[in-house]
Amino acid sequence: MILATPLSDEDCGAQSMPDASPVKWHLAHTSWFFETFILEVYEPDFAPFHPAFRVLFNSYYEGVGDKHPRPQRGMLTRPSLAEIRAYRANVDLRMQALLLSDICDDNCLRLLELGMQHEQQHQELILTDVKHLLSLNPLKPAYLPRALQAMPVQTELEWNTFDAGVVEIGYRNGGFCFDNELPSHRQFVESFAIGSRLISNIEYLMFVEQGGYENPAYWLSAGWDWRSSNQIAHPLYWQRQDDGAWREFTLHGMLPLDPHAAVLHLSYYEADAFARWAGARLPTEAEWEYAVGELGNEGRQFFGTAWQWTSSSYAPYPGYAIPDGAVGEYNGKFMVNQYVLRGSSGATPLGHSRASYRNFFPATACWQYSGIRLARSL
Amino acid sequence: MILATPLSDEDCGAQSMPDASPVKWHLAHTSWFFETFILEVYEPDFAPFHPAFRVLFNSYYEGVGDKHPRPQRGMLTRPSLAEIRAYRANVDLRMQALLLSDICDDNCLRLLELGMQHEQQHQELILTDVKHLLSLNPLKPAYLPRALQAMPVQTELEWNTFDAGVVEIGYRNGGFCFDNELPSHRQFVESFAIGSRLISNIEYLMFVEQGGYENPAYWLSAGWDWRSSNQIAHPLYWQRQDDGAWREFTLHGMLPLDPHAAVLHLSYYEADAFARWAGARLPTEAEWEYAVGELGNEGRQFFGTAWQWTSSSYAPYPGYAIPDGAVGEYNGKFMVNQYVLRGSSGATPLGHSRASYRNFFPATACWQYSGIRLARSL
Amino acid sequence: MILATPLSDEDCGAQSMPDASPVKWHLAHTSWFFETFILEVYEPDFAPFHPAFRVLFNSYYEGVGDKHPRPQRGMLTRPSLAEIRAYRANVDLRMQALLLSDICDDNCLRLLELGMQHEQQHQELILTDVKHLLSLNPLKPAYLPRALQAMPVQTELEWNTFDAGVVEIGYRNGGFCFDNELPSHRQFVESFAIGSRLISNIEYLMFVEQGGYENPAYWLSAGWDWRSSNQIAHPLYWQRQDDGAWREFTLHGMLPLDPHAAVLHLSYYEADAFARWAGARLPTEAEWEYAVGELGNEGRQFFGTAWQWTSSSYAPYPGYAIPDGAVGEYNGKFMVNQYVLRGSSGATPLGHSRASYRNFFPATACWQYSGIRLARSL
Amino acid sequence: MILATPLSDEDCGAQSMPDASPVKWHLAHTSWFFETFILEVYEPDFAPFHPAFRVLFNSYYEGVGDKHPRPQRGMLTRPSLAEIRAYRANVDLRMQALLLSDICDDNCLRLLELGMQHEQQHQELILTDVKHLLSLNPLKPAYLPRALQAMPVQTELEWNTFDAGVVEIGYRNGGFCFDNELPSHRQFVESFAIGSRLISNIEYLMFVEQGGYENPAYWLSAGWDWRSSNQIAHPLYWQRQDDGAWREFTLHGMLPLDPHAAVLHLSYYEADAFARWAGARLPTEAEWEYAVGELGNEGRQFFGTAWQWTSSSYAPYPGYAIPDGAVGEYNGKFMVNQYVLRGSSGATPLGHSRASYRNFFPATACWQYSGIRLARSL
């Protein structure tokens, strides 16, 4: 809720593209998750807050029944933001009552954990979706005033090398993880090297200025078509000014491009083309996860700066089992035509930064905080 | 502004389809018209309220320069509704000052008149656009509480007949009219008959229930394709309930279909198909205008109930001259692939109900209050 | 059939766009017309040549039943061209037998006349469709060798003027005409002037070179959008060479643009924009028909050079009645969102050149031999 | 060339969808490959057969320059099929002369091998593309008369099991292979079982008849959307007759569905949904390749019946290097958003059936001979 503070009611209601959702919808949907998957099952004398909400705020759970069409979420000017706030307060109260009772069994607690993790994922989406909405506005409004920031000191890019071998992949500590991080299993990685930090704006700018976007030799065929039909010549939020200087749209409005900050908001196609131009490639998710395990805190910028595209298609781990019931639609049914991103961004809630976490988006997605870490085969 | 009273800030910001605009945008655009076409020319030391508004609230005037893309109007969550209100107040004050000065010459007064007529046209659009937006909401909210209404008494449909002859068409009184009503000129009409009232819901329901939407013999070829690819089987805001009864979405929410009220929200294709089914046709705009001139107050439902489709394509009158300057883009450039509607609806501001007034929409438009008056050749 | 002589089997089978049809399909469809509307009714012991042809070669007659989807006509590599030739020969023989018998009554003879007129219309379409197909081929092949042609002598454009008055419009001689030319009726025309000849390539080239395609002031709003989204900057078959000279694709291959020949292959939008640029307008169809009646043979280029766009939307004449049966779908159901062209082109069969003949196409169509005759109100 | 024997010139010229090409184009393109990549480099005094062919018959090689737009290949009625035949004969002769000379070095011989393998790939595409074209024809013509076929005896589906371990993947014999089969490398596979044969029509029919296409629980989310928006309810070439019996379009025309033959022409989405319904999954490509290596000739239907979808996204092997020059565009640039199929079909040239061969198509493709082999984790 705190995330909505700098936003007007109007900001919270608008939907900037079918891939994004209104802030208001995120707020309602995360409470809907608790109401539908926990309260509806465990609350004695359950009665829905509003019967229509079951459909209105269902994202994609076919097992729950009908759902409001995704591209039409911006049309829901009613219920109002105030009503959504009341809905959230009501669900919170009912959840508290449930937890104080002895009704909530182990499965209930697992769903509670999942619901909170789910809400945290949506907190990140609120920031990326608001950024996209505001970027479309010719006034280029800021979401937040600009905090003073020390200029990051750019270090030399180094290569950490690893020998070939069988490695253990997937979550294997106690505590919460998503189903797509399981089961822990073995993979063989051939020897490889991975970059010591993310690619910076100035490095990516060299690619832009040396004609990287005009040379099909660097691009996947589908990436070249995407670039051509969308007339893409630079990262999503970059803008070249009349004087030739580059600026970047941020949650603090338009700012001069910071040369040593990590380049952000790239599609898979752009990340892959840059890597080829640089004589390298993207890491696989196994290489990435293994490197983090080995390097530990030595590794720079694994977490907290940008999601890092891997060359791995989003697929189930060997032995992966979809959970029963509608909650089973959480991850498994999206395992096609998407690519895995590893790490986390500055917008990611803290608890989501772990080596086994798998984020995923289509190759064309660039409204997320997505960047580049290079790798090489040895 | 009074029209926005029952609406939340969120309601005012949403755009339900490219053809419609957010209420907020209508409010800003009508003041933009005064600022751009009058204040910018006549105001001493003119300075714009906000430099970006010239582009943001330009509807389609190429002569004014760039314009914000029409389908993106719903993305303008900034400026806020409060800022738009401040903009309107500011323009109003400056217009008052201008009018109290001796600067405003005859041309200025003509533009003032045009600006006020323009604003009235947008008042009607606000109502039709809000209706469309609310109709998309599964909660089917009401814009206004329902006033008590006496059931209209349905009269027999009669035919008023007219002999062939040369008739005078177009505006020829003093006072304001739009350029497209000029010049007054002569047309020859062969003898014809025109219906004494509009077609009612119950009459249109017969067409629906006797398979009117399933028989291509009643339809123009393009209309049949429109019906098929949009899966249309009844008027836009009608809904058949599980028990078979029909309801209609209105600005008062969902209401039972009133059998004797005029049928509304038809496309040209539907109006034309109904007419063929009924063994009649739509009137030409010359026939309609001539009939109103002859029948005067005897004619029922010419004004204030529904815009009435004519079979006349929207075209310039002989000798029509486009006004100089950007204001010249008001009407003339739309004279292709649209059909003329005559009369006025319950949402039309009073001063717009006159015999020579020409409304116009594409053959597919049905979100306006558009209905049917029949005609026949004799 | 003679029209297909310069074409290979492959040429005859290809469909260059949904609006066009393969030559083979034209050949089959015109015989289908005789088989379906005459033989099926009058032939004793009627048996179809091939049961599937009834569906395959139905163009748009809903009353006849199913039809093969229009954009899929190029997929019909079977039946082969040879089989279509056999079909045509078979229908011709059966038609001859029918005519030698005493079975063919007056209605049958009327259908025979319509069938022959229909086939002549398709002869023109074969030429325009083949031209479009060959124009898409990078080899720019010629349909016919180039005949020697005298350079046409360009005359001064003069204006023929006419007084206002009631004029008689529509076909009123004996002999055949299409239903859309009826009934003959009266219209009032205000005084006007009409150009003594068509607009030439050199005149249209001035419009192009003086930025006519870059200035929205000359264009209808929908025309400007059409131009922009299709990136149109000159007539369909023109091509600017590297040396700046213009060439034009013709049925004789690419030829240098003939400056004094009539400009051809314009959309309604282009014709209308040119007229506005030239300080004139397009004629209405009543003006055009009246002028031809008055000027007779004095009028230059009314027939045989180019179809001439009028500003009249294609609509039924007062009292127009759709013929009974499936043949009634011939004209009436297309009377929306199309504009009337008058005259005839060099590809038009001779008997179709008459003052009352109404050709019609959407405002975007430019693969027909369509040109410009200007008019002015006085 | 022999493949074109049962086809008319018209059949050879038509293009049934952007994904498919006309037979004539395949014939020209495969010779173009030899002329462009070999003759142009090695032939003394090289002169192209026709200068325009370099562009016309370039499939997707950006390094070669412009190319004719893929969806427009069916418009190329010129050059004629006879001219293409002459082109092929000419290239064949020049290639023979080159090979008899001492000019052709090792690299030249490698390109020759690649050119022949490339032509064999297109032989298979000719069959699948012709099948698709003929299937669109309502006459459902046969490409070949039906050979007598013994009814295949259906065996019980058994599971071959394998222990976890590091396996060697990729081509490692002498002789030709494609670049995407290299380098040979190690992968770890967890223990798994793989089906002893392909899924049959009768087994797939159970999925259809038990509502497999109506239950979202079996489908990937993107697959469910694909099914819904294309209204897919059975495999591409199946057709349910009025009497409820199923028929299948084949190169021999419509035939009764053979219950014990392998189900064919499935998309990845359908294969994946069937596997989930059956309580199994698709194999990874490493599992598939390892199983073939172990089972050798014991394995049933690995080759010659159907390409078998794997769950592996098409990606480069570790250490994969794109060959230099335009030939480098052969495989690598397509490694995104496609899935690997292993094995071979009845239309595959003999030499292409090997354990390491990687075919690949988007998840929506179903006009290839693609079927299902199941797997399970243990």
UniProtKB/TrEMBL annotation, chains A, B, C, D:
Pathway: Amino-acid biosynthesis; ergothioneine biosynthesis. InterPro entries: CTDL_fold (IPR016187), DinB-like (IPR024775), EgtB (IPR017806), Sulfatase_Mod_Factor_Kinase (IPR051043), SUMF_dom (IPR005532), SUMF_sf (IPR042095). Keywords: Iron, Oxidoreductase. Residues 163-296 form the Sulfatase-modifying factor enzyme-like domain. Residues 3-126 form the DinB-like domain. SUPFAM superfamilies: C-type lectin-like. NCBIfam families: egtB_TIGR03440. This is Ergothioneine biosynthesis protein EgtB. The lineage of its organism: Bacteria, Pseudomonadati, Pseudomonadota, Betaproteobacteria, Burkholderiales.
